[in-house]
Amino acid sequence: xxxxxxxxxxxxxxxxxxSGNGEKLERFGSVVTARPDPQVLWEKAHGVKWNEATxxxxxxxxxxxxxPVDWQVSFSGITFHLKLSAFKxxxxxxxxxxxxxWIESEIQRLSKPLHVLxxxxxxxxxxxxxxxxxxxxxxxxxxxxALSWARENAEASGLGAKPVRWILDDALAFVKREIxxxxxxxxxxxxxxxxxxxxxxxxxxxxxxxxxxxxxLPELLSxxxxxxxLNGYASGYSPLAYTNSILPLKEKFGGxxxxxxxxxxxxxxxxxLPAGIWARWSQSS
Length: 285
What we know:
The chain contains six helices and 17 strands.
């Protein structure tokens, strides 16, 4: 097992300017947001002008009149539509940039066409990078809004005509049906929330349903699968817990298991904001 810290650095369309006192100050294109973050236990940097944030979230967004209803940013050639959601999100998780690049490189290193399943696909980051690399993708999410958002991002990125299925469904229900149908995937990406609901009100609790879902993966993967990527955010688990959860894939298919943390580097202090955990199983070393 190998452990790595994947760090997103400042770029043209995104930077973490500062963090402190339970908040983070970020720039998405021309829009600067101030949002709560439970990981931030330290003080804000001296001299940073937090009062110049375009918009701020506490219990709701304030300053919305200063922000376009819909604006765009780009990551490695992929275009994302951003919007102020009711749950402090804007439609992108920049800490996933290293994972997105890894997905693209894993697909590109093989000459054969791959079929990728993206569960809990949200606004489509992993889906779009897989499509860009030449794979066909089945994108599953329980939110109609998120699904439409992902399709908008695909169109904006020039990937609307690529081979992708957009599926509105509960992840567990979909996987059970796919196994019964005999459908198999060469790679799977999972980005489960701690708690959520499917389109029919199906309850998702990570401590109950993630182990069940992971136990089904060997039946869902093709005979010679390429990779599985599992992400985690505010679930309270360690990378080691996620590593142990996907070790059965190594036992069945060989390959290597990696895990680690996600982080974002501040543009001024170079301090690293912890932003999640991940584990990967891959046939490549």
